[in-house]
């Protein structure tokens, strides 16, 4: 398996409308923020290349075009994803419930093939917080996801979240590669993937 192909990761953003999905992507990829609701992106996904340890990793980050408002986001959107960022708004109870529904669906459809990051977004509105930090962190842990406190507005936690997710995906791919090598009896020589340290938050 070529290391080049191996390092192309698809990440999808999921969550209720208006929680800040598009804002998180634009903050991460273009370091930009807009106070208005951003209904669509120019493209269906944005690319970003990041350095994870010695590896250069290409992320294709897929944002919705607002279909979540019509409950019209199906498996076609998230299939083949290596990772998902599940965004909720810390001031909105329903949005946290929605994230839990997404986790159930993703785990049912993709099992543990997908790495999950939960973003409790809009932490700049801390005084209006409804979802407790510990509650969210405990929930994330219970479903094998990482939790991050983010503000796309103030540029907090966004970079760390995407970076950590990229690390987790890379670590998982390297484990899969080793397992595949063992089960077939074939040694896969891919220096770039061997003996990689596991994700930053494990
Ligand atoms: P999406 O529908 O989930 O893609 O949400 P958007 O990215 O379009 O954002 C919805 C609204 O929330 C917009 O008015 C954004 O400016 C605002 N927003 C996004 N992120 C933050 C944040 O971190 N803090 C605050 N206060 N507002 C945010
Ligand atoms: Mg959007």
Describe this structure in words.
The protein has 202 residues and is α/β, with parallel strands linked by helices. The chain has one domain (6-200): P-loop containing nucleotide triphosphate hydrolases (Rossmann fold), CATH 3.40.50. It has six helices and six strands; from the N terminus they run αβαββαβαβαβα. It has helices at 3-6, 21-30, 75-78, 93-110, 133-142, 158-184, and strands at 8-14, 45-52, 55-62, 83-89, 115-121, 146-149. A six-stranded mixed β-sheet has the order 2-3-1-4-5-6, sandwiched between helices. It is globular and about 55 Å long. It starts with a helix and ends in an 18-residue tail after the last helix. Mean pLDDT is 88; it is low at 193-198. It binds guanosine-5'-diphosphate and magnesium ion (MG).
Brief account:
This protein is an alpha/beta fold. Helices cover about 35% and strands about 20% of the residues. Guanosine-5'-diphosphate (GDP) binds near residues 15, 17, 18, 20 and 21.
